[in-house]
Amino acid sequence: MSDIQLENEYPIESSSNEIETPQEKTGTKIGEVSDFEKELIQSEVIEESSVQAEESVDGDEDDSFFATHLTQDFNDYVEGDIVKARVRTVKKSGVLVDFSYKSDGFIPSNELSDSLVSDLEEGFELHAMIQKLETKEGYSLLSETNARAEMVWDELFDVMNRKEVVDVQIKKVSQKGYLVDYEGASGFLHAEEGDDFSEKDTVQALIINVDKRRRKVLFSTRNIQSVIFKKEEVTKFLDTVQIGDTLKGTISGIKKFGVFVNLGHAEGLVHISEISWRRISHPSDVVELGQEVDVEILSLDKEQGKLSLGMKQLSPDPWETIDANYEVGQIVTGKVVRIIDFGAFILIDKDLEGLVHISEVSVKRINSLEDVLSVGDTVNVKIIKLTKHDQKIGLSIKNVQQDNFELAQRIEAL
């Protein structure tokens, strides 16, 4: 069978198991305020300010204060944004909704999907696109159908990545294939050998390319039976395992957010935070493609056929016993695993890293650490700082005798 082609050919992304190289070396940021904490802080500030406003003697100041905060709280939206709205009132002409804006929103009946009409009642939540923030009637004008049409493209990407089999309806038959409809999105289904579909037929297909900018999606029925069979095998496999089980697998893909592990009958994802107890910039710092690993099942979704796996859970957290194994002043041997502008990270145990600041490498001034240290160097270091609560180890090379002759010569030559 020939490759799928269109007059405006889609670039088909390769699904080969390649290692995605890190773009930027970054560690976990300490001390960041979470979104949840920000919300708490903001709410406390608003509550405190509200009390102050109530205590104000001047009524004009109260009005000014309220208007100021009203403007600050409701200036986030622009026309074209998709928002989550809650139905307040249902009318024949449309629905009045609250979408956390200074005015209510109105969705006309002709901007509502037919499939939603029977579900509309007070409290019902839906997504809508802002058409006009301000109208002369005093409300914002929204559209549910436009939001749905936009959001379907995000769904298409997700369905494609999950390799999910979907039902599409044939809208028109052409010489090269079929124009089809999926959830309101128009697409093209290439005609494979043996295909003989007619208008209004519903057929099973896979999404193989999505072009959101051009509003086009490409479907295929090629090898669909093998995909269906594989999904059935995954479903059977998931019925035989449970959370907490330990399995053996092979690293089948490496991405910046984690690694995929082939377990034979299914594939699972180990998020980067679940690979090692130490902080890593990229999974390739720890594992490599084709490597056999042991994993623990952290969660599973039988309906979606997804497995969430962990690797670090199969070894004890070294920080739990750090005080018993290490102390300030102790000399340990480690390996240079990462060099940055102001220091080098030294792996002193399987899941323990410490930082040698550039000022702690030599008594002499160093312009560039790479003149002295290289990734992979074995080095003797002294522990000069050890804080368990924030999991930090400070190390020093100054005045520490080195067993690595080449490293000792580099330091001496400074």
Structural features:
alpha+beta; OB fold (Dihydrolipoamide Acetyltransferase, E2P); 4 domains; elongated; disordered N terminus
Pairing-aware structural class of the strands and helices? alpha+beta
The first-level CATH class name of the largest domain: Mainly Beta
Number of strands: 20
What amount of the residues lies in strands?
25-35%
- What is the CATH topology assignment of the largest domain? OB fold (Dihydrolipoamide Acetyltransferase, E2P)
Shape: elongated
CATH homologous superfamily label of the largest domain? Nucleic acid-binding proteins
Number of structural domains: 4
Summarize the main sheet.
Answer: 5 strands, mixed, barrel
Structure in words:
The chain is of the alpha+beta class and 414 residues long. It has four domains: 82-147, OB fold (Dihydrolipoamide Acetyltransferase, E2P); 163-222, Beta Barrel (OB fold (Dihydrolipoamide Acetyltransferase, E2P)); 233-314, OB fold (Dihydrolipoamide Acetyltransferase, E2P) (Beta Barrel); 318-412, Beta Barrel (OB fold (Dihydrolipoamide Acetyltransferase, E2P)), CATH 2.40.50. It has six helices and 20 strands. The protein has helices spanning 35-55, 59-73, 144-161, 224-238, 322-325, 405-412; strands at 82-91, 94-98, 105-108, 125-132, 140-143, 165-173, 177-182, 185-190, 202-211, 216-220, 246-255, 258-262, 267-271, 292-301, 306-310, 331-340, 343-349, 352-357, 378-387, 392-396. The strands form four sheets. The protein has a five-stranded mixed β-barrel with strand order 1-2-3-5-4. It has a five-stranded mixed β-barrel with strand order 6-7-8-10-9. Strands 11-12-13-15-14 form a five-stranded mixed β-barrel. Strand 11 (246-255) and strand 12 (258-262) form a beta hairpin. Helix 1 (35-55) packs antiparallel against helix 2 (59-73). The relative contact order is 0.08. Mean pLDDT is 81; it is low at 1-19, 21-59 and 64-73.
